[in-house]
Amino acid sequence: MRGLPFKANCPECGTPVIQSLRGILLQFADPTYIKEILTGTSWVLNGILVSIVLAILGGLLGLGAAFVAPNLASGTILLSSFVSLAVGIWIFLGYLKLTTPDPQFTGTERPDSARQVVRVAAIASIVISALQLLVGGISISAGSVPGGLLGILGSVLGFASLIAFAVQFFATMNYMMWMAGRFPDMWIYRRAKTYRWLLPVLGTVGVIVLVGPLIALILYWNLLDRVRKHLKAITATGEPAVLPDMMG
Question: Which among 81, 76, 38 is positioned nearest to 233, based on CA atoms?
């Protein structure tokens, strides 16, 4: 069946491909499992929206403090970091729920599956974020620009954070490609496959035109939102949502 379109028939027996995939289709999975990954998807999506709002507010507050009360600027930055960590924990918990193991694959799933990698990378990211906040707090308390050991530690944590983020991103795209076959939805599969290279380009080279990272975030959000629509439909009706370009 590998490589055959979902709407095609098996060339050997004539059975519809989608019927042969019944064993992996989410509509036949444990309802508790479906609700768990639906909750996780919603937490991640809502967390992303909140983080965008907080980033804008944090920037405005930091700018205001720098001009109106410069002595409060460092405190504003630290407060913003704590709030960002709280939202990060919320999103982190969302990824854990989104990557909840499906009971029917217990004992057969590879240890290096995309789902497992996402969870490990998410844990690494939140731990690194907490350490970065700790180092930043110590630096602000010292009232000086980070240097020496703190400076080196900050740089190492920054590099580690970038690596963990990259690993989590690529694993998430692979996980979305796998999930696409469980609805099935070729739109999700194609987008996730393309986004593996497109979103990193938008997030890096796209900085030149300023809006590149924002566009990448919107595309990522829309991809996860499409997954959420299917999960909501399965929870409500027992079948995935009927969306454009699912089988094309």
Answer: 38
